[in-house]
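Appendix B. One record, verbatim.
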Amino acid sequence: MPTYIVLSKWTSEGIKTAKESPSRVDAARKELPASGMTLKAFYLVMGRYDHVLIIEAPDDATFAKALVAIGAQGKIQTETLRAFTEDEYRDIVSSVA
């Protein structure tokens, strides 16, 4: 199952309601499985971003649909990285000519 690393930061509206953020994480953890996705990890981080999430999804379209829905709430802005496992990485680089 594809893995995605989501770098997120609070919007000005999101930081105003930061105390509600844990309940939003809990809601995502409960709602994502209905679409075949799993929130594997959530981290509060320091620096350019405020949070890092690790999410598994069955495919890019399913993940993108969920991310648009989350973004539409107006609490966070995201940047997403498609992550490849070490085995996937080895398959990719072994096929390079």
